[in-house]
């Protein structure tokens, strides 16, 4: 009985916070737009009993999903989101790995401070931080001013409102999610393994690729998923830093909901996004589990 | 065919495989190794023995290339290896913690060093198989290090460090983690492997019995100095200092003043006790302070006064029964204590000496060594 309760708690939690909202969104995605409040049809009316339930279900259809597949805008938005997410995940890895490596190799007494510094940005609002990037990257921004002053460039660089700005924003925002799992993997690495590798004829570089890299693989995988999954649906960064040509599915979703007030299409977009994300989420879970088994 | 005794260190024509020449190692202010010189010869099984923190691991790490030498030189087959990085030295080390690669199987761990040498595949496979057979690990080739027992892991570490057939194999407390029985087995295995492969072994150990069992020579260290380098028998029978005598095995150490007499000395060591007569090659000036060290198994214990050059009367105050032997603690007149050991040839009930008995302890004039202050 006690075991049952223990297992039931997380499942009830999932049910309330994930499954129920998902079913509601799924239901809206199968409905039609209507000038009503809420702005879609049909509504479930339980007072009419079984008849009401039957008409309710017969009114649901896949129209919106068919619509999504015919309009190329949506396909392009998904593909472009996917591309931006993949590229920025790789960029985050390239920036985050050396940082995590440096932290794990730092003197032991420094490490808590370094960890603190990585987490510190979370103490200010995410929006404020993205806005300050606008201040840095804009044509009159700090970066251009400095470069102009140093004489590196003659005309200000156009970074704001380009994909570059979006990459910078995503890499900056999600960097801690990449650093922390890699750091925790590297910190556990026994120094004598590298000495053993060198003793057996490896150069420092070979020892890194043959020992350090594979042994931090689980951290790398975890970090990549932690960046990739939220990045694909990212909305704030592309809309504040990106230009009109940065097409991301999060932005499309926002516009369908709030500009077009087309809740059913917006919900359909959301459902498909979720289906796309399920694959990496399941892979991520599998990785975590494997790691736990290896350690246990 | 008469077997020649293996003792290259007595032959001045032999070139040592390793030569430490005035090596000093400092960590900041602290000097871990003091101006140390040492020769180790090919095919030796050389043991470094000493208390914790005396610099054994530091010596190994300098040989393997993980620590730089502060001053002096180390030569390997006549070549100064000070500037050679660890991956270029024909030296392999078996780590105290084994340092097996957790993401690689037993087979891959053993093959790791071979693959770095760009040998061809069949050669590598053959060599790994040979190592697996030698260390009796063939059955476990596919397992990961966390799927085998501690003793098996230790054998993998040994196989891995042997696989490249290094000129010199360094073993840093290789058997520390094993239980006594397995340790003894492995000691003989190590000696066997050393014999078969002809590799020169340098082994670090805390355990003096282990050093006595496996080593051709032992170096006893103390705080970064070599105190004595000699064969196990010499170290045991003719220690050159009180430190070595005390460090290796059980010993009675008596303090006194030596007076030359005949081809030995007579030592006044306690009020009301006859002087000890002992043979020695060292010349003492009359009244020079000295120590006399005698092993308990060289001291006999009798009810009647025995006919020996040195006999003292005392009372048994303690008996430690160790199965095959018993150690008697005897209190002599004047409060000095002496340990005497006897083989238990008879069953317990038949033994005649017991607690509180008045007895005689005795030893010959060649039983102990006389050491200068
Ligand atoms: N990296 C280092 N920095 C400072 N001091 C060190 C360092 N490595 C070793 N030492 C010191 O050098 C001395 C010798 O150390 P070493 O590890 O060689 O001892 P050991 O004989 O192997 O001891 P044990 O039997 O406990 O393994 C010790 O006093 C130790 O504190
Ligand atoms: Mg040590």
TrEMBL record, chain A:
Topological relation to the membrane, as annotated: Multi-pass membrane protein
UniProt keyword terms in alphabetical order: Cell membrane, Membrane, Transmembrane, Transmembrane helix, Transport
Keyword Transmembrane helix: yes
Superkingdom of the organism of origin: Bacteria
InterPro entries for this protein: MetI-like (IPR000515), MetI-like_sf (IPR035906)
CDD domains from the UniProt entry: TM_PBP2
Transmembrane segments: 77-101, 113-134, 165-186, 220-243, 263-284
Keyword Transferase (UniProt): no
Chain ranges of the ABC transmembrane type-1 domain: 78-284
Biological process according to GO: transmembrane transport
CC terms in the record's Gene Ontology section: plasma membrane
Pfam families: BPD_transp_1
Cellular location(s): Cell membrane
Family from the record: Belongs to the binding-protein-dependent transport system permease family. CysTW subfamily.
This protein's name: Putrescine transport system permease protein
Organism whose genome encodes this protein: Salipiger marinus
UniProtKB/TrEMBL annotation, chain B:
EC number, UniProt record: 7.6.2.11
GO cellular component terms, A-Z: ATP-binding cassette (ABC) transporter complex
Coiled-coil intervals, chain numbering: none
Cited InterPro entries: AAA+_ATPase, ABC_SmlMolc_Importer, ABC_transporter-like_ATP-bd, ABC_transporter-like_CS, Mo/tungstate-bd_C_term_dom, P-loop_NTPase, PotA-like, Transp-assoc_OB_typ2
MF (Gene Ontology): ABC-type polyamine transporter activity; ATP binding; ATP hydrolysis activity
Limits of the ABC transporter domain: 18-248
Cell membrane as UniProt keyword: yes
Key words of the record: ATP-binding, Cell inner membrane, Cell membrane, Membrane, Nucleotide-binding, Translocase, Transport
UniProt record, GO biological process: putrescine transport
Broad EC category: translocase
Family matches, as PANTHER family: PUTRESCINE TRANSPORT ATP-BINDING PROTEIN POTG, SPERMIDINE/PUTRESCINE IMPORT ATP-BINDING PROTEIN POTA
Biological role stated in the UniProt entry: Part of the ABC transporter complex PotABCD involved in spermidine/putrescine import. Responsible for energy coupling to the transport system.
Subunit structure: The complex is composed of two ATP-binding proteins (PotA), two transmembrane proteins (PotB and PotC) and a solute-binding protein (PotD).
Record NCBIfam families: potA
Protein name: Spermidine/putrescine import ATP-binding protein PotA
Lineage: Bacteria, Pseudomonadati, Pseudomonadota, Alphaproteobacteria, Rhodobacterales
């Amino acid at each position: 009985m006690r075991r049952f309760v223990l297992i039931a708690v997380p499942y009830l939690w999932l049910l309330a916070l994930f499954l129920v909202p998902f079913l509601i969104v799924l239901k809206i995605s199968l409905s039609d737009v209507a000038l009503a409040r809420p702005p879609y049809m049909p509504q479930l009316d339980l007072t009419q009993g079984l008849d009401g339930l039957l008409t309710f279900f017969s009114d649901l259809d896949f129209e919106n999903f068919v619509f999504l597949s015919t309009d190329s805008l949506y396909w392009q938005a998904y593909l472009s989101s996917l591309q931006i997410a993949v590229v920025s995940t790789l960029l985050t890895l390239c920036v985050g790995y050396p940082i995590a490596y440096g932290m794990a190799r730092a003197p032991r007494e420094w490490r808590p401070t370094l960890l603190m510094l990585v987490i510190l940005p979370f103490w200010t609002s995410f929006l404020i931080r993205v806005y300050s990037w606008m201040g840095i990257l804009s044509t009159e921004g700090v970066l251009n001013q400095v470069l102009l002053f140093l004489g590196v460039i003659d005309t200000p660089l156009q970074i704001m409102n380009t994909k570059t700005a979006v990459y910078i924003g995503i890499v900056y925002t999600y960097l801690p999610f990449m650093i922390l799992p890699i750091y925790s993997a590297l910190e556990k690495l026994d120094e004598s393994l590298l000495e053993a590798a060198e003793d057996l004829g490896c150069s420092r570089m070979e020892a890194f690729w043959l020992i350090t890299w594979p042994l931090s693989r689980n951290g790398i995988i975890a970090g990549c998923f932690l960046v990739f999954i939220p990045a694909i649906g990212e909305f704030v960064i592309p809309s504040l830093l990106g230009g009109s040509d940065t097409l991301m599915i999060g932005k499309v979703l926002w516009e369908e909901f709030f500009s077009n007030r087309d809740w059913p299409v917006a919900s359909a977009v959301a459902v498909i996004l979720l289906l796309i994300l399920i694959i990496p989420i399941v892979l991520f879970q599998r990785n975590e589990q494997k790691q736990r088994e290896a350690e246990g | 065919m008469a077997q020649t005794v293996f003792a290259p260190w007595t032959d001045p024509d032999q070139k040592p495989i390793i030569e430490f020449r005035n090596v000093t190692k400092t960590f900041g202010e602290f000097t871990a190794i003091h101006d140390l010189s040492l020769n180790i010869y090919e095919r030796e099984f050389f043991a470094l023995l000493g208390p914790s923190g005396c610099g054994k691991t530091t010596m190994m790490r300098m040989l393997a290339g993980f620590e730089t030498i502060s001053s002096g030189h180390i030569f390997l087959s006549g070549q100064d290896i000070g500037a050679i990085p660890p991956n270029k030295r024909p030296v392999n080390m078996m780590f105290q913690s084994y340092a097996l690669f957790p993401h690689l199987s037993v087979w891959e761990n053993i093959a790791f060093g071979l693959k770095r040498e760009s040998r061809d595949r069949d050669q590598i496979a053959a060599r790994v198989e040979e190592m697996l057979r030698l260390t009796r690990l063939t059955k476990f080739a596919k397992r990961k290090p966390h799927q085998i027992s501690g003793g098996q892991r230790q054998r993998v570490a040994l196989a891995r460090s042997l696989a490249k057939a290094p000129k010199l194999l360094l073993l840093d407390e290789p058997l520390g983690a094993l239980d006594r029985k397995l340790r003894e087995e492995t000691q003989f295995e190590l000696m066997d492997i050393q014999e078969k492969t002809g590799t020169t072994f340098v082994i670090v150990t805390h355990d003096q019995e282990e050093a006595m069992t496996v080593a051709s020579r032992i170096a006893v260290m103390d705080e970064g100095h070599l105190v004595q380098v000699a064969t196990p028998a010499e170290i045991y029978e003719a220690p050159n200092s009180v430190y070595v005598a005390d460090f290796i095995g059980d010993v009675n150490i008596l303090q006194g003043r030596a007076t030359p007499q005949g081809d030995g000395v007579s030592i006044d060591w306690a009020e009301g006790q006859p002087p000890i007569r002992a043979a020695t090659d060292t010349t003492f000036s009359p009244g020079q302070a000295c120590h006399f060290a005698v092993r308990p198994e060289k001291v006999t214990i009798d009810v009647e006064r025995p006919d020996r050059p040195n006999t003292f009367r005392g009372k048994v105050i303690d008996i430690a029964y160790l199965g095959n032997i018993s150690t008697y603690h005897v209190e002599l007149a004047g409060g000095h204590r002496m340990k005497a050991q006897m083989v238990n040839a008879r069953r317990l009930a038949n033994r005649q000496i017991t607690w509180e008995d008045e007895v005689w302890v005795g030893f010959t004039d060649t039983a102990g060594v006389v050491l200068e202050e």
